[in-house]
Each structure stands twice: as structure tokens, then as C-alpha cells.
Specification:
The strands form three sheets. The protein has a three-stranded antiparallel sheet with strand order 1-2-5. Strands 6-7-8 form a three-stranded mixed sheet. The chain has a two-stranded antiparallel sheet with strand order 3-4. It has seven helices and eight strands; from the N terminus they run ααββαββααββαββα. Strand 1 and strand 2 form a beta hairpin. The protein has one domain: CBS-domain.
Amino acid sequence: MITAKDIMTTSLITLSPGMEIVAAAKILMDNHINGAPVVDEKGDLVGILSRDDLITQQKKLPLPSYFVVLDALIPLHSSRQVEKELEKIAATTVEHAMTPDPVSVRLDTPVEDIATIMVEKKIHTIPVLDDEGSLVGIIGKEDILRTILPGPGAD
């Protein structure tokens, strides 16, 4: 059975929460990666920044929609959801644009489970943690796709 430890990338490119968005975007683009883990000064995983998070900054300001029931205004979006979107749009540092507490997998997570998580949660990059919870690798969609390609020596 193929697991996370078999397909993960171990030479990690990480970002810090205080890094400016422009610098983080340049790192993602220069390294041709979809996302990178965000680690604090102790090296603990605190979030993940993806290209989707950066693209969010370019979208229109979300205006809450309302409908009227018995002369009462009922919002279609929660104020917290609108607040989160505004924070991402206005972000100047990684901390404000990143996805906090990202979905992660362990070293022994089967590749089928990782693929399922990626599809169901629409995630492109997943951090890999060891048994102590330390960041040891990262898995992207390309890593999953490589598992279906024939290995050397296959006809």
C-alpha cells in the first residue's frame, strides 16, 4: 500500500505568518507550487497559503444579500463569513490570507485517503505530520498523479 511517506516532498518551502503577501506570492510562483505551509517561529504548522487564497484578494467585495420575511431582513450570508472574506481581500501579510489549521495527514495515511480528502474538500496541497505533530512533508496533486504513472522498467 502506498502511503504519504512514499509520495510526499520533504524539501519544504515554508512561509511565516508575518511575511508580506507579495513576497509569499513570488515564492509560490518562482517555485511553481500551488501552496506552502505556514509555520511559526517554533516551526509549528499554523496554516497553509495557497494560490486560491491569493486569488481571493482579487475578487469583488462580497455584499451580503437579504430577503424580507414579515418586514424583517434576513441575511443570506453570516456576518462572520463576510468578515472573513473582507480580511482575505484586504490582507497584507500571510497570516491574514492563509487558511488556518489546515487539513493534514500522517505519514502512514494511504494515498487513496489523501486523494479522497483532496477531492471532497477541494484541497490541492496537504501538509504531512509525523506522530509528534511536526511538519515533515507536503503532498500536492502532482504527487498523487505520479502514483498512477508506470514506474521505470514498465512497458
